[in-house]
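Supplementary Note 3. Input sequence used for the single-chain structure prediction.
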Amino acid sequence: MRTDFSRKHQPEFRLLPAEDEGIQLGYLVAVFFFFSVLSLITALKFSEPVETLYNGAVSFRPQPVAEEVEPLEAGEEYAANNYALIGPFTIDRRGQVVKVEMSIAQPALNTWCFVEAELLDEEQDYLLSFGQELWHETGRDDEGFWDETEKSSEMKLTIPQSGKYYFNIRTQGNFRPDHIFVTVTMPYASSIPHTLFGILTLVIGAVLQKIRRMSKSS
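The predicted structure, written as discrete structure tokens, is reproduced below.
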């Protein structure tokens, strides 16, 4: 008696029931949510400072006579000029992430000040800069009275080469703060990749969860 081997051992294919598909999709949602939470926790740990390079308040120093000051712009009382120099501080590792925080006391009503930090090398040559406008405004609209203030700035930057560096603080606006509080720290590593991955997996997990709910209700 001859046996049809190919037919006997041919695998059987079948469609999964809807409830099995829902269970598998639920597992997939849980996996994406798990990696999202794990990535965001890792990003938080990486952003913790491991060393403080500077922490203190700086005040305005008089400008050297030879320094060229930029002309006033509309709405300004103080043109963009140097405020204080911080450093030098030493970076021992290539690609080191540095976090710079700058803040001022509560600005006076309807005033603004642009605070900028310039990264300088050991010879105090300009490398890059970043900054933010700090202000305090009030007003009234259809929803009533409002009062808004921005008095702090935060930036992370990667320094490609080891060496000695400075931060030159510059200001401009219609007022000059008495003091600028500056904190320069070195986090363990950059948290940006883990943060982006955590957000991406969170969004994918939320989309899959919505698809799962729609398939269960249909």
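The mean pLDDT is 81. The chain is about 25% helix and 45% strand.
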